[in-house]
Amino acid sequence: MTTELGLVLGLLAAAVVMFALGRPRMDAVALIMLVALPFTGVVTVPETLAGFADPNIILIAALFVIGEGLVRTGVAQGLGDWLARRAGTSEPRLIALLMLVAGGIGAFMSSTGVVAIFIPIVLRIARRAAIPAGRLMMPLSMAALISGMLTLVATAPNLVVHAELMRRGHEGFGFFDFTPFGLPILALAVIYMILARRLLGPGQAQADPQRRPLSGWVEEYDLAGRERRLRLLPGSPLAGQRLDTADLRGSAGINIIAIERPGRFRPALVRPTAATVLQAGDVLFLDLQSGGFDVAGFARSHGLQEVPLTGRYFHDASQEIGMAEVMIPATSRMIGQTVTGLRFRSRYGLAVIGMKHGSIPVAGPVTGERLRAGDTLLTVGPWRAIRRLQEERRDLLLLDLPAEFDDAVPARSRAPMAVGVLVLVIALMVTGAVPNVLAALIGCLLLGLAGCIDMTAAYRSIHWQSLILIVGMLPFSIALDRTGGIEIAAGALVGLAGDAGPRLMLAMIFVATAVLGLFISNTATAVLMAPVALAIAEGLGASPYPFAMTVALAASAAFMTPVSSPVNTLVVGPGGYGFGDFLRLGVPFTIITLGVAVLLVPVLLPF
């Protein structure tokens, strides 16, 4: 062993130990390696930093943005809602649908993002169906990991293996080359989890207790008794009038919170302003400041029809209408003034429907009540207006948001555009009309132009830790190649396999990759194992594709520990899992995946 190889292996061993201990965090370890590797003299500084210009790194970042576009437009959440409706209370059907939907979405966006989206959805479904959350979180994480076996862009290890093939002069994998392997594994995983679900602990994690649902505020402020919905019938004298002309607040004490206007596909929420013109068919969402108001008489005299309103309405409309509790600080310029005098709705786009002096709710009309320091206001209106409250510091302090705030979709009306952009990106990648990275960047630009995502959300959606991890580990493949480390590792594996043939060699590569993945991330595992597998293929005089595919499949088969992948880590808390739960279910299914890979890969990708 040369001195240079010893130094490189020493750094690699140090990185593996730090990854296994979790200290420091993974991206910090990668940065340490970026700084340390040039001092070995094996790689230069430009070579060490070349990963930042790698097209696959840009592609991964762009895919994070596209995935966020699907989240912000409600496409991913809509699939989750469909899942809840179709599954009902049947646990096997729920597991099957959950895994198929999560796997399908994960084929086109980050598997970590898929799990983050589905955790609150699964918790709600579990509560509704009286199923322990621990029975559903493990199937979710397993499906998300297997989604990485479905398409080229589904997970970073696939792109790492693809890039290594191209670096060695091969064509690389096509977009759907992974699908024939991933689909049967996903089908087996569904059957496996349905049969093995009872091995999971019965405990169920609780939802975040710090945020109450909208229905809780409805009950606390008695809104179900005060709020009304009235539809303008054809011929109503209010039709065609501006709100400032109608003056419903001054004449009848009616506070219009929102206007639901019929649309082509679904009602649109119109923010009420002085210049808003009422139309026949509009549904007025009202807050009655006076408890003795004659709603029926007012409706008859103004050509209106009362529409039933229950606490459930706030849940159904939670994608459009939200609530927030705000406090008047001692430095506020609002102290001593009234909500009406402040023109609160014109200023903030929100209606004040409840007030507390300290902990005592104000009975009766609140819009004329003088504001005091420490008062709490309950506001209602569009989520976009509530989000702007987070920037307010002097006159209002945002105290609390309902649980539905985390699930609200900022650009729901643009969902068709997001789906269209996704279809276009996939078509460009499948046909090869443009390079994959360019197709993804085109998709990002189109999502921005269509209003599906803004620049702030785009930058925030990128998982920079994963990108730094890949960039920091890539130079190791160059360093190990130059110092002969890859040949030594390949020779060791070949020596262990003896004369058993290439199929057993695939099994050994799979096992080595899976075992290494117990200690470091699957992305780093792919970075280290891909050149070893290709060196073995070259030494055997075989095609590199079955060996590269085996590394990719094994890297995604990170089922055995909660630290093998961020996907597993995310479900530990909500599922109430321990280390043994992953071992008990993950090890058998890893063996099943190994069997599928060894049997199927040589058939579809001959040696």
From TrEMBL:
Q: Which Gene3D superfamilies match?
A: Regulator of K+ conductance, C-terminal domain
Q: Does the keyword Signal apply?
A: no
Q: Say yes or no: keyword Membrane present.
A: yes
Q: Where in the cell is it found?
A: Membrane
Which residues span the membrane?
5-22, 28-45, 57-75, 95-119, 140-161, 173-195, 440-459, 466-484, 504-537, 544-565, 585-605
Quote the Pfam families the UniProt record gives.
CitMHS, TrkA_C
Lineage top rank: taxon: Bacteria
Could you tell me the membrane topology recorded for this protein? Answer: Multi-pass membrane protein
Major location category of this protein: membrane
Instruction: Please report the stretch or stretches of sequence annotated as the RCK C-terminal domain.
Output: 215-304, 311-395
Which InterPro entries does this entry report, sorted A to Z? Answer: Cit_transptr-like_dom, DASS-Related_Transporters, Na/sul_symport_CS, RCK_C, RCK_C_sf
Q: Which UniProt keywords apply?
A: Membrane, Repeat, Transmembrane, Transmembrane helix, Transport
Q: What is this protein called?
A: SLC13 family permease
- The species is Halodurantibacterium flavum
Question: Taxonomic lineage of this organism?
Answer: Bacteria, Pseudomonadati, Pseudomonadota, Alphaproteobacteria, Rhodobacterales
